Structures are given as C-alpha cells and as structure tokens.
Automatic annotation (TrEMBL):
Matching InterPro entries: Ald_DH/histidinol_DH (IPR016161), Ald_DH_C (IPR016163), Ald_DH_CS_GLU (IPR029510), Ald_DH_N (IPR016162), Aldehyde_DH_dom (IPR015590)
Family from the record: Belongs to the aldehyde dehydrogenase family.
Domain of life: Eukaryota
Keywords: Oxidoreductase
Source taxonomy: Eukaryota, Fungi, Dikarya, Basidiomycota, Agaricomycotina
Record protein name field: NAD-dependent succinate aldehyde dehydrogenase
Length: 468
C-alpha cells in the first residue's frame, strides 16, 4: 500500500490553514493527470501573511540561538516521522523514482538538524577602559523564499533553516508545479513553530515575479540559486567502466533536473570510445517508467515546459544530423506523462544547442578533447569562465583522473562555485553552495549561508559619560 498524505493542501497564514476563492490543479508528471487541487493566493492574503510574520518577529528574534536551533531539530524529527509520506508525495508530485525521493527526504532531515548547530558569534573588537566595540549579526525581519520545483523538500529546508535560525520570520512561495510538499511540510510544522514565524502560499509565476519586483524596487537583499551548464572533464588515466557509472548517474539522476547535474561530458580522446560505449550500455539497461514501479531507474521530467524544451533539443540534434549514440524508450507505451528518453549525443559541435544550453534533462552530450588548455577553453566558452564575453553560467564542475598534479592545474582555472575531483554532488551542510555569473548571487548552506540572512551591525558601548 502506498502511504501518502490524503487530506487537502492549503496555505498557512498566521499559523492556520487558509484556502482561496480559486484553485489550481497539480499534475502527476507520470500520468499527465490531475491528482490534487491547491488554492491560489490573493494579494490580500499575501498582505495578511506579511502582517502576521511582522507581529511574530519581535518574540521570535528575541529567542536565543539555542532555542531557535532546538526548533530546527524538532522539525528534522518531524520529517523523519513522516518520511514515508513525504517520499511518496515527492514521487507523485515530482516524478522521482523511490530511491531518489527517499534520498531527498533523508537529506532534508539530516540537513536541518545540521544547520541547527550553526552559529554566528559577535566579533569583539575592543573591550577596555569601560568601552567596548563589536560587530554583531541582526536578523532582517520578515523574509520571503521562492522554492524550486525539482527538489521541493530540500529547497524548503535550505531556505527556512538559516532564515529561522537567524531570527527572521519566513514566508515560503511554492513552485507553481510542485506546491504540495512545501504546503504539507509547513502545515505540519505549525505544531512546532509559533504562529506567523513560518508561512507558505501557493501562487503562479506572476506571483513570484511580484516578489522579485518588490525586492528590486525596495532595494531588498537577495540570494539567488540559479542554473548551470556544468562540465565533467575526464582524463585518460581512469577506468572507463568505473567513471562511466559515475558520469551516467550524475547526468540522469532525477531525470537530469538538477542545477548541478553533469550537463557536458568532456572525455579525453584516448578513452572516449570506451567511456561512450559504457555509458550507452548503462543507458540501454536503465528502465524509464512510472516512479512507483520498483524496477524504474528514472521517472518523467516534472512539467510540460521542461518536457517541450527537451523534445525541441532532441529535434534540433536530429535536424542537424548529430550522431545519436543511443536514444531509449520514452517511458511506458501509451503514457500521457512527461517521459523523455535517455539520449546520448556523440561528439556534437561546440555551437550545438545541446552544448550551449542547460538542457535540464536526460540528454547527454559527450565531447571529445585532446589538450588540457583546449578543454579548459572550450568548457569556459560554454558557461564557466567569468572573463569570456559569451559566458553565462558558473555553478559546478567535476574532474576525473589519477594525475593529481594535472587535475589541480585544471581545477585552479575553473571559475565555478564548486569543483569536485573524482566525486560528484558531495555536499555537506558545512560547505558553501553558490554559483557565479548567471548561476546565482550569494551563498546557501554552511555558516556563509547563514550570514546571508543577517545584516552586520557595528555596536559601540561606553559604560559612562566620564572620561575623554
């Protein structure tokens, strides 16, 4: 039996569930059918939510770091208690296979408990002769967070953990196509957080743009985690079979819908054919199907917008005559879901759309290279190098090989937020997560991420009016 949350999904305003005059459908991406309805927030409800958060701010910010951290620990335990329901809801709403969905739930519980222990201590500058000066950290007040569709629980936790720990009150705005997970989590969280401290609203794209417009017009600070066109650079001194397994997972996990997925696989010419053939073998044996089928390795992409873009990329590859090393089945026969076949493109040209654009799906371009400086330049020309005129992204990169001196020389020239060497997606709550260029502004995770939710204040105190 599939255990899933069966009650309705609502906004949470001032600690209470709230509905709206209109509702929006939520689509199961594996079937193309509506499985839930969610209320669409009005601007009056937004104003009510902000007012409630403003009322809650004084008492919440007055609590100690430890008290607020204890609340986060309790929220982590809440996720663990409802792990199966959240796993099944993610499978239904996002289209993830069970392993990927369960991983997201487990990571969310671990992350919030880890973030709960982060602290920003006052920095004492002077403390003598009755006069003290220090820098201290103060919460902003009422904050907003927009949740991405591809990891609705993880991104909810990433946003709220440091926001609440720092003493802010937070309003979550769900993604238009995956609202159920953050709506349900925030509802359950009301048994732990005071009213108004953590709220959630569902709204469409226009609702999110209104938040961005307000931030710009009011000169509000922003943190943005955006996309990437992440390269994986494979040196000739690796085991083709072993590295192919890592590359394949990094490219198709969550149907490729990850900002840090391996988007372009640069494989040295000496090992190119062997790695390509291993990747094709893996793709041939990977079942694309309904997430609730235990044999499924990869489910559908999450929404029609991503689905249509990926179909256009495959059509573009075919129209230009690029060699297709493998194109699999697009999910179960007759399905109306958003299934895209795992597709391996064999050494397309540098100016191909599949190379230049972030595909955000299971279409894998393999690119042959020979010279170290050449691969750095080509990788840079497609979204990594801060100095190149036509660049856009700079999120992550990975390098695979045995020659550590050679790897280090390549790594030092990559202008990205994260470099992985012989690993991928190895992230902890104590490491900063950020992008450069169009991949983002600011930092999430680690104490650096916590610092994004506060402003620094100079504090000068003289104990009396005596003295100079």
């Amino acid at each position: 039996m599939v255990h899933i949350f069966t009650d309705s999904f609502t906004h949470i305003i001032d600690g209470k569930p709230a509905t709206s005059p209109t509702a929006a459908p939520v689509i199961d991406p594996a079937t193309g059918e509506v499985f839930a309805q969610v209320p669409v927030a009005t601007y009056t409800q937004l104003e009510q939510t902000v007012a409630a958060a403003d009322r809650a701010f004084a008492s919440w910010s007055a609590k100690s770091w430890q008290e607020r951290g204890d609340v986060l620990h309790a929220l982590g335990a809440l996720i663990e208690r409802h792990a199966e329901q959240f796993t099944n809801l993610i499978m239904r709403e996002v289209g993830k296979d069970r392993g990927s969905a369960a991983f997201e739930v487990d990571l969310a519980a671990q992350a919030i408990s880890g973030f709960a222990n982060h602290r920003l201590e006052d920095e004492i500058v002077t403390n003598d002769h009755g006069r003290s000066t220090k820098g201290r950290y103060r919460p902003y007040g009422v904050c907003a967070a927009v949740i991405a569709f591809n990891f609705p629980l993880i991104f909810t936790i990433l946003k709220l953990s440091h926001a609440l720990l720092a003493g802010n009150c937070l309003i979550l705005k769900t993604a238009p196509t995956t609202p159920c997970v953050p709506l349900k989590f925030t509802g359950l969280a009301q048994s732990i957080v005071p009213p108004g401290v953590l709220s959630v609203l569902y709204g469409g794209d226009d609702f999110g743009k209104a938040v961005m417009h307000e931030a710009a017009a009011g000169v509000k600070p922003l943190t943005l985690e955006l996309g990437g066109n992440d390269p994986a650079i494979v040196l000739p001194d690796v085991d083709a079979r072993k590295v192919a397994q890592r590359l394949f997972i990094g490219a198709i996990n969550n149907a490729g819908q990850q900002c840090f997925a391996m988007k372009r696989l640069f494989i040295h010419e000496d090992i190119y054919d062997a790695v390509r053939d291993e990747i094709v073998t893996l793709a041939r044996h990977a079942k694309v199907g309904n997430p609730f089928d235990p044999e499924t390795i990869m489910g559908p992409v999450q929404n029609q917008r991503v689905y249509e873009k990926l179909k256009s990329l495959i059509a573009d590859c075919n129209a230009h005559g690029y060699k297709i090393a493998y194109e699999g089945e697009a999910g179960p026969a007759g399905s109306k879901g958003y299934f895209i076949p795992i597709t391996v493109i064999d050494d397309p040209p540098d100016d191909a759309r599949i190379v230049r654009e972030e595909q955000f799906g299971p279409i894998i371009p393999l690119l042959r290279w020979k010279d170290d400086e050449e691969v750095i330049t080509v990788a840079h020309d497609h979204g990594v190098d801060f100095t190149a005129d036509d660049t856009e992204y700079g999120l992550d990169a990975s390098i695979w090989g045995s020659d550590m001196e050679r790897i280090q020389k390549i790594a030092d020239k990559l202008y990205v937020g994260t470099v992985w060497i012989n690993e991928w997606a190895a992230m902890t709550g104590d490491l900063p997560m950020r992008g450069v260029k169009h991949s983002g502004i600011g930092v999430e995770s680690s104490k650096h991420g916590l610092a994004e939710w506060v402003y620094t204040q100079a504090f000068v105190c003289r104990e009396s009016l005596d003295g100079p």
